[in-house]
């Protein structure tokens, strides 16, 4: 007996409660909107924001004189010719305002001599990155925004809602249909405007640095509703994700702040530093950018110069214990509890899926082009081109979140009455109501299999052979998944949840693989072993659309962004 | 040097009706209980209900369970050889297996 759908109506529906979603919700209420802030997990605790450990890039000029145009130029340079100049400008120009707002809300940016501290990070021309000690940037940002959100009566917060599809009336997006995890019941949400703030797709990879709810669902929701995606081939691998020894209670990207503060040495199994072989001399400083770093490590491993677990070594053995303690305080004790003494032994690191440059195509108002549908944060593509500058993700989340909240509330204010119905409502409700307790598939195994394929064949080193194999494997997995979810219609039926996740992950994985396959060159985060050169002909963005189960890629030339005058 | 933990897990939709089930889980020293639960879902039984978001960072706080009677996080508790008894939080409403209603009341739809 299918459960009767529950209903909600709101001005603005925000899907996802990381930094971008919470900022969007706050800003939408300033425009007078009632907001429903929904999350697949707990409000303000899932997603990527809470995992960010260190830097937020912003031209505050607190440490040394700076101007947003310098930040913009570094962002454009990092993007390897594909950055959307208007989105990059928005990020860099508005960043200081959002960072100051966070400061007023009490986030606690690290300070020194009465000014906010700004650290230098790879790819920046000067110290520009603010942070919260120790390794606490993301948790502090999440907590600060949560506190603001909790005080606003016009925001209704609902966790444990897994959005299955957006609700459409013709081209208009009029809300979404979700599954309530606790009961398994469908929830129909009618909204005058909808904001996708679901983050990226790192869960598609076996080695990833983000929350398990980052399965690319926002991209799949947008595609199925008729919106376009951009730059989907560009997945950023964080070069020095923790590999061994096994470390618990800490995120695998934790070594980045150590490198910002102390440099550190990246060495292979012969004890040699090696980044100079790939064009970057480190000399005790942390200067290697993410695309070059990930490539260099993979090539060292491939050449037989890797560490026992398949990465390279990161060593702080040359740094005295008191300096380590001064830079990292209590984190040193957590390492000791894990049996790691940095003065004695190096640790092993390897590239780990970290961030998605690609995403939903939007203009500077965060409109997707579909009336009523907006997107923000990592869910959006374009601002970071083919390779993201370190520190830009949280800035992007805050700035784009604010913009999306504004646009969504303005759109909602123009509509006199709440939307009703929905062309696809019955089809989505039928999917959620399908009761197939005897259907026998191991969804957890399918999911692991997809992650292995993406890591091995759509990872940091790609080729025609690998990508063709990945696409064939994704076809097989899609066939094995079938058309109806397994399991019963009750709460927390795990196979049903996996199935709904896989429905999105397989679609998005296919998009990434096809876009990577089509791009026969090496640029930014895309390394094609069979096409090792960057080709001027490929100074184009690939846009992705979807109709009747068919993915279409189209190319548009990117105008070379003119460096802004400073 | 793989060792074996025996995870004995409560499987029920409420605290009264259900059963204990044991799973042998191979592990390398240093691995977490959550690693073991995820291994069970892939290799033994995908229907086992657990919840977590951040996997390893102890940031999301969703994986809290009772291990041998003590409330702790599955992502920071380490697997060890021998039996470990895993039960859902006894002070929260049970939804399924190790999953309880942990969202603050103001953040629930129903």
Description:
The complex is a heterodimer of chains A (566) and B (110). Chain A has 566 residues and is of the alpha+beta class. Chain A has 3 domains: 7-54 and 68-96 and 135-235 and 354-414, FAD/NAD(P)-binding domain; 241-351, Flavocytochrome C3, Chain A, domain 1 (Alpha-Beta Complex); 434-557, Up-down Bundle (Methane Monooxygenase Hydroxylase, Chain G, domain 1). In chain A, 34% of the residues lie in helices and 19% in strands. Chain A has 14 helices and 19 strands. Chain A has helices at 19-30, 68-78, 85-104, 137-150, 217-225, 255-262, 290-302, 321-328, 331-337, 392-414, 425-433, 443-457, 464-481, 494-518, and strands spanning 6-15, 35-38, 56-57, 111-112, 115-116, 129-130, 155-158, 161-169, 172-180, 186-196, 229-230, 235-244, 265-267, 312-315, 347-356, 359-360, 373-375, 540-547, 550-557. In chain A, strands 1, 2, 7, 8, 9, 10 and 17 form a 7-stranded mixed β-sheet that branches. In chain A, strands 16-11-18-19 form a 4-stranded antiparallel β-sheet, covered by helices on one side. In chain A, a hairpin with a 5-residue loop joins strand 9 (172-180) and strand 10. In chain A, helix 1 runs parallel beside helix 4. The longest helix of chain A has 25 residues, at 494-518. Chain A is globular, with a radius of gyration of 23 Å. Chain B has 110 residues and is mostly beta strands. Chain B has a single domain (3-101), classed as Beta-grasp domain (Ubiquitin-like (UB roll), Roll), CATH 3.10.20. Chain B is built from 1 helix and 7 strands, in the order ββαβββββ. Chain B has a 5-stranded mixed β-sheet with strand order 2-1-5-3-4, covered by helices on one side. A two-stranded antiparallel sheet of chain B has the order 6-7. In chain B, a hairpin with a 2-residue loop joins strand 3 and strand 4 (70-73). Chain B is globular. In chain B, 41% of the residues are buried. Chains A and B meet through helix 12 and helix 14 of A and helix 1 of B.
């Amino acid at each position: 007996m299918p459960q009767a759908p529950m209903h909600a109506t709101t001005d603005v529906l925000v899907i996802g409660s990381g930094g971008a979603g919470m900022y969007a919700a706050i800003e939408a209420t300033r425009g007078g909107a009632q907001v429903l802030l929904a999350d697949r997990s707990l409000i303000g605790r899932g997603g990527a924001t809470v995992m960010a450990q260190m830097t937020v890039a912003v031209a505050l000029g607190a440490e040394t004189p700076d101007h947003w145009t310098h930040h913009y130029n570094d962002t454009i340079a990092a993007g390897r010719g594909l950055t959307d100049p208007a989105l990059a400008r928005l990020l860099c120009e508005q960043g200081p305002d959002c960072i100051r707002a966070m400061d007023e809300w009490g986030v606690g940016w690290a300070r020194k001599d009465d000014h906010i501290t700004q650290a230098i990070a790879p790819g920046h021309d000067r110290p520009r990155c603010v942070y919260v000690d120790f390794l606490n940037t993301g948790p502090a940002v999440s907590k600060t925004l949560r506190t603001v959100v909790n005080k606003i009566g016009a925001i209704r917060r609902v966790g444990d809602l897994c959005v299955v599809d957006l609700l459409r009336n013709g081209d208009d997006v009029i809300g979404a249909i979700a599954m309530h995890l606790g009961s398994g019941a469908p929830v129909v949400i009618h909204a005058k405007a909808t904001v996708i703030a679901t983050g990226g797709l790192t869960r598609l990879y076996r080695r990833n640095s983000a929350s398990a709810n980052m399965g690319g669902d926002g991209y799949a929701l947008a595609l199925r509703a008729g919106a376009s995606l951009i730059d989907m081939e560009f997945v950023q691998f964080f070069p020095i994700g923790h590999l061994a020894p096994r470390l618990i209670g800490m995120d695998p990207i934790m070594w980045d702040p150590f490198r910002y503060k102390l440099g550190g040495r990246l060495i292979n199994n012969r004890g040699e530093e090696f980044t100079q072989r790939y064009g970057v001399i480190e000399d005790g400083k942390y200067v290697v950018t993410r695309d070059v770093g990930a490539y260099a490590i993979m090539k060292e491993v491939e050449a037989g110069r890797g560490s026992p677990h398949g990465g390279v070594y990161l060593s702080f053995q040359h740094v005295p214990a008191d300096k380590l303690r001064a830079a990292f305080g209590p984190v040193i004790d957590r390492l000791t509890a894990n049996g790691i003494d940095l003065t004695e032994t190096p640790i092993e690191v390897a590239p780990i899926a970290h961030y998605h440059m690609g995403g939903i195509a939007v203009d500077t108002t965060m409109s997707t082009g579909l009336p009523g549908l907006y997107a923000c944060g990592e869910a959006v593509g374009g601002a970071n081109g083919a390779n993201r500058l370190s520190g830009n993700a949280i800035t992007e989340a805050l700035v784009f979140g604010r913009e999306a909240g504004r646009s969504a509330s303005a759109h909602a204010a123009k509509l006199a009455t709440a939307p009703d119905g929905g062309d696809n409502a019955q089809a989505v409700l039928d999917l959620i109501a399908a009761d197939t307790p005897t259907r026998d598939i191991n969804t957890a195994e399918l999911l692991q299999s997809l992650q292995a394929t993406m890591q091995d064949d759509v990872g940091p080193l790609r080729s025609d052979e690998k990508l063709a194999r990945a696409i064939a494997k994704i076809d097989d997995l899609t066939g094995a998944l079938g058309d109806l979810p397994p399991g019963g219609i009750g709460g927390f039926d795990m196979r049903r949840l996996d199935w709904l996740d896989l429905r999105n992950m397989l679609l998005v994985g296919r998009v990434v693989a096809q876009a990577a396959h089509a791009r026969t060159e090496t640029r930014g985060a895309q390394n094609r072993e069979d096409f090792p050169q960057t080709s001027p002909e490929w100074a184009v963005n690939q846009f992705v659309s979807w109709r009747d189960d068919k993915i279409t890629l189209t190319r548009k030339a990117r105008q070379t962004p003119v460096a802004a005058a400073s | 040097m793989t060792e074996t933990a025996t995870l004995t897990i409560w499987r029920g939709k409420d605290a009264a009706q259900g059963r204990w089930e044991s799973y042998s889980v191979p592990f390398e020293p240093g691995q977490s209980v959550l690693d073991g639960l995820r291994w069970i879902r892939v290799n033994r039984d995908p229907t086992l209900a657990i919840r977590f978001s951040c996997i390893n960072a102890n940031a999301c706080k969703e994986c809290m369970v009772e291990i041998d009677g003590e409330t702790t996080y599955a992502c920071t508790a380490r697997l060890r050889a021998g039996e470990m008894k895993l039960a859902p939080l006894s002070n929260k409403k049970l939804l399924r297996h190790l999953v309880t209603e942990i969202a603050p009341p103001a953040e629930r739809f129903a």
